[in-house]
Specification:
The complex is a heterodimer of chains A (about 400) and B (about 80). Chain A is α+β, with helices and mostly antiparallel strands. Chain A is about 50% helix and about 15% strand. In chain A, the strands form three sheets. Chain A has a four-stranded mixed β-sheet with strand order 1-4-5-8, with helices on one face. Chain A has a four-stranded antiparallel β-sheet with strand order 2-3-7-6, with no helix packed on it. Chain A is globular and about 80 Å long. Chain B is mainly α. Chain B is about 55% helix and about 0% strand. Chain B has four helices and no strands. The chains are: A alpha+beta (about 400), B mainly alpha (about 80). At the A-B interface, helix 8 and helix 13 of A face helix 2 of B.
């Protein structure tokens, strides 16, 4: 009986998982072509998205009967990490994980059979792109202070309001939208809805420019009395808060999975550069100011990987992982920024120039201490879970 | 575990672990309307039910109808236990 069968911790990948990791890394390398152009122009590549679908990555976790690959959680994590190891387009890395953890997973775990059959196959095939619509201009970290309303009408709900900072919003065909069905009940009056972008009154606003992750479009979604059929409500009326909390646990745990792979590759690139770059007659890696940074980057990568895979292992065992998911989000978010800054310092002037594609990682990682709950919010939650009242 | 035991354990957990200060709650007291429990408290409470009371709670069941008071929680959890055994 192996470790996994006994339910013990075993973070080593099987031969199959390693193979899938390598396959995804190869695809990631291929799709990295043009990453600098997409970053400069702020464009989302539909072609790359379809390649991701063809490779099975968009449906890695989704059962075969809904058009996915039917892999278990740890295998899916290995595939996503592998893709990020190869892919330098961090926007694409975020987009895959954003859709998977914040829309496909809740649809799979909470959706009705009809909802799963209607939407999951299209999402796995890349024919549909999905966005998660919670944040509003006046909510943000106070996530439940929503103004978007869903009024009960004959046959369904009339949705009105505006969401902003919505990843993949400008290109989505489906949005998981949280709205209040009973405003007097506050956060207990929220409900979740699957809303199709071709519904009358659904407005996808243009892409908002941002610092990094520019190949993953971000924008506002507006709902002008959009009629949403009752069959498109996800979960019970009033269960929106719990559904959001559950979704956020998945997102906090795994939103950085592909970025973890990128972190590993970034470290290897920095080691390579430290050995190649000669200054004053010796490689710069001989200087402790460089080698110590590399050591710190390695520790950040390994601690990040341990946290993320441990969280995956807990969730695959059906155990609660709120604390672990929150620590993973906090640690990875901060580690990615710190290591990306170290990468620039190690590369010196070349690291600062856009053409060497080192500085992009820093621009791409700053958002990670804000989206999916800021680092400060993660600390608040960890403290509360520790018993701090 | 019967309903009375469940409600007693829930009351102790809420009073000792979730509320600040020496607050005593009544079984039928609305904990949500009075804002005694916030969204993080609910996450903790659901974990308590799953870990300590061994009742698996689907996300879609975490509604005001089932969690507004200790009495309602007791009723919901008792029915869950009966339905899953």
């Amino acid at each position: 009986m192996g470790n996994a069968e006994r339910g013990a911790v075993d973070f080593s990948l099987t031969a199959e998982q390693k193979e899938l990791y390598q396959q995804q890394a190869e695809l990631g390398r291929k799709l990295s072509q043009g990453a600098a152009d997409r970053d400069r122009d702020g464009t989302f590549s539909s072609e790359a998205w379809l390649s991701l679908a063809s490779s099975g990555l968009l449906g890695c976790l989704i059962p075969k009967e809904y058009g996915g690959q039917g892999h278990d959680l740890v295998t899916s994590i290995a595939m996503l990490e592998g893709f990020g190891y190869g892919c330098t387009d961090n926007g694409l890395n975020l987009a895959v994980n954003g859709q998977l953890w914040s829309v496909q997973e809740p649809l799979l775990s909470i959706g009705t059979e009809d909802q799963k059959r209607r939407y999951l196959p299209g999402l796995c095939r890349g024919e549909m792109v999905a966005a998660h619509g919670m944040t509003e201009p006046d909510s943000g970290s106070n996530a439940f202070a929503l103004e978007t309303r869903a009024e009960k009408v004959e046959g369904g709900y009339k949705l009105s309001g505006r969401k902003w900072l919505i990843g993949l919003g400008p290109v989505c065909q489906l949005a998981l939208v949280f709205a209040s069905t009973a405003p007097a009940r506050g956060s207990w009056g929220l409900s979740a809805f699957l809303v199709e972008s071709d519904s009358e009154g659904f407005v996808r606003h243009p892409v908002r420019d941002k610092m990094g992750l520019r190949s993953s479009p971000l924008g506002d979604l507006e709902f002008k009395d959009v009629l949403v059929p009752e069959s498109n409500r996800l979960g019970q009326e009033g269960a929106g808060m719990a559904i959001f909390n559950a979704t956020m646990e998945w997102e906090r745990a795994f939103i950085f999975t592909s970025h973890l792979g990128r972190m590993r590759r970034q470290l290897e690139e920095c080691v390579d550069y430290a050995n190649r770059r000669v200054l004053g007659g010796q490689p710069i890696g001989r200087h402790q100011s460089v080698s110590h940074r590399l050591a710190e980057m390695k520790v950040r990568y390994e601690t990040s990987r341990l946290l993320l895979y441990r969280t995956a292992w807990l969730k695959s065992q059906g155990r609660p992982a709120t604390m672990e998911a929150t620590m993973t989000k906090l640690h990875l978010g901060e580690a990615l920024v710190a290591s990306s800054l170290d990468a620039i310092r190690i590369h010196g002037g070349r690291g600062y120039l856009t053409e060497f594609e080192v500085e992009r990682d820093l621009r791409d990682t700053v958002g990670g201490v804000i989206y999916s709950g800021t680092s400060d919010i993660q600390k608040n939650l960890i403290a509360r879970l520790l018993g701090v009242k | 575990m019967n309903r009375q035991e469940i409600e007693e354990r829930l009351t102790r957990y809420i009073q000792d672990e979730l509320l600040v200060g020496n607050i005593t709650i009544e079984p039928d007291e609305d904990l949500l309307e009075s804002a005694l429990l916030d969204s993080i408290s609910i996450i903790q409470l659901v974990h308590f039910c799953e870990q300590e009371l061994k009742v698996k709670i689907p996300h879609e069941d975490v509604t005001i109808e089932n969690f507004a008071s200790v009495e309602l929680m007791g009723s919901y959890l008792t029915s869950r236990i009966q339905a899953t055994h």
